[in-house]
Amino acid sequence: MSSASPVFGTGGEGSLAPSPPVELEPARRLIIALDVPTPLEAERLVERLGDLPVVFKIGHQLAYTGGLTVAERLAKAGREVFLDLKLHDIPRTVEEGVRSLAGFGARFLTVHAYPQTMRAAVAGANGSGLALLAVTVLTSMNDGDAAEAGYACPVAELARRRAADAVAAGIGGLVCAASEARALREIVGPGRALVVPGIRPAGEAAGDQKRVTTPADAMRAGADLIVVGRPITAAPDPLAAAQAIIAGIAEGAT
Ligand SMILES: O=C(O)c1cc(=O)[nH]c(=O)n1[C@@H]1O[C@H](COP(=O)(O)O)[C@@H](O)[C@H]1O
Fold first, then answer.
1. Per UniProt, where does substrate bind (predicted)?
2. Which residues pair with 228 in a beta bridge?
3. CB 99 less than 6 A from any atom of ligand 1
4. In this structure, are residues 114 and 86 in contact, taking their beta carbons and an 8 Å threshold?
5. Residue 99: pLDDT above 70?
6. Which of 30, 49, 148, 198 has its CA 20 to 30 A from that of 75?
């Protein structure tokens, strides 16, 4: 296992192999969402966070203003990078898109948990170091939102179904809410990463998130890594906010 893959080994299939999780220091379990408008602001934020060995996530907001270049620079500097592009398209487009993204040196890439999409992504990532994470049900959704989108089952059941589909497709990890983490662990076993967004330190505004949990509770529920955006990016002192969250990770992991 290389130092660039501290959580789980790569399966050589573009996914994470079901191997035992490795002990990780708490900071390595924190994924910070660089949800800012420009590469310059992203780089300033990274600088303010100093040498904390966190994972940096680049999503839609930053990717469309040059964020892939930021990803490449961070990866070249030895930082862990997560491309959160949530791919979902016809199989060929997904497979070739993943193949193109494999060149940026990122460690993680998200796709939506549709069987056809996941199989195509696994094919595209084959032979690269890119670990695929399938987004089960967005943490901004509750049962009412799932019904509005045409799903006849609660989000917890939809997440379970998608987790099973992800295992069948050979995907190595899932993005899920902490409320589903225990049930999904039963489905995916110990070797696949559970990545949990919707994290709010006690007392912080949920904003558009509907299935939220504190850092410590997410770890207690079985998260391998947690994703945090606004509680850090909007904090007056992002480094202090990140350190408080890392303390919560350590508390929940013991
Ligand atoms: O894939 C993700 O990272 C993701 C999945 C999900 O279900 N919910 C979710 O919030 N995210 C991402 O996690 C981050 C959460 O940001 P905050 O709500 O600001 O902490 C955002 O970048 C979202 O795009």
1. 35, 57, 84-93, 139, 200, 209, 229-230
2. 32
3. no
4. no
5. yes
6. 198
Q: Kindly give, in sequence order, each residue whose CB lies less than 8 Å from that of residue 105, ignoring residues fewer than 6 positions away.
A: 71, 72, 75, 76, 81
- How far apart are the CA of 198 and the centre of ligand 1, in A? 6
Q: 118: pLDDT confidence band, cut at 50, 70 and 90?
A: very high
Atom 22 (ligand 1) nearest CA: 33
Say how many C-beta atoms besides its own lie within 10 A of residue 52's C-beta.
Answer: 14
In the prediction, which pLDDT does 197 show? Answer: 98
Q: What is the pLDDT of residue 166?
A: 98
Task: State yes or no: pLDDT of 57 exceeds 80.
Answer: yes
Nearest CA to ligand 1 atom 13: 197
Note whether ipTM > 0.85 here: yes
Average pLDDT over the chain, rounded to an integer: 92
Per-residue CA distances from 36 to 32, 78, 98, 192, 215 (Å) = 11, 21, 23, 29, 22
User: Which atom of ligand 1 lies closest to the CA of 141?
Assistant: 7
The CATH architecture one would assign to domain 26-253 is Alpha-Beta Barrel (3.20)
Instruction: Flag whether pLDDT at 76 surpasses 90.
Output: yes
Tokens of 53: 């060995």
d(CA 11, CA 6): 14
Task: Identify whether 86 is a catalytic site residue.
Answer: yes
Domain parsing of the chain, residue ranges: 26-253
Assess contact for 233 and 33: CB atoms under 8 A. Answer: yes
CA of 81 to the centre of ligand 1 (A): 15
Ligand 1: atom nearest CA of 33 is 22
